[in-house]
Amino acid sequence: QVQLVESGGGLVQAGGSLRLSCAASGSISSITVMGWYRQAPGKQREAIASITSGGSTYYRDSVKGRFAISRDNAKNTVYLQMNSLKPEDTAVYYCNAFAMAIHQHYWGQGTQVTVSS
Description:
It is a single chain. The protein is mainly β. It has strands spanning about 1-5, 10-15, 20-25, 35-40, 45-50, 55-60, 65-70, 75-80, 90-100, 105, 110-115. A hairpin with a 4-residue loop joins strand 7 and strand 8 (about 75-80).
């Protein structure tokens, strides 16, 4: 089992920045990919960024150039630096860990990000 605890959400004005953190505990060695998803009211949850154990990254087109994902393996923590935030970035952001060997996804509890115009 893997436990994920997110922090760093909040209210920010358009153009501002926030940094989300996701601390992982438990069976850390099983994790292949860690990433961030978000879900806005009335919309489906969408993947926005991920990073593999080897450091390869993926970004959704709508956040490219504005968001940056990174990981600190010593702290078992993944970060999402969000810059130039827009009102359409408003959503609940979820941390995700994927263990490829057992095809298991783990989710954090979510953290609210609200961007005011």
